[in-house]
Here is the input.
Amino acid sequence: MKLRTFFVEDNATIRENLVETLLELTDVQPVGYAETEAEGKAWLTDPHNAWDLAIVDLFLRQGSGLGVVAACQQRQPHQRVVVLSNYATLDVRQRCKELGVDAIFDKSNEIDALLDYFMEMQ
Here is the structure.
């Protein structure tokens, strides 16, 4: 089963490289992306949009990924939210856990761990 994945990432190069890597190495089906907090919250909370996984960056062109994560607290039990950020400090990790994030990965050195997480989900 393909994981319907939505990306909240404002850097087009990072987003495209991430999607390309995940398509090559995992069983994902990209269903869309957002570059701002408002776009991400609107898409992920719309009951007409089907998704299994959201990958959220914390620093966006407008707003914060933390706002996106907070908006997803009432998601369906099968839906997971993952934070992928260059700012995965201990404080940020704790705040993400408080908001119900399923996992958090550092962009700079935990991409392999993210791929392992995908493999576990499938």
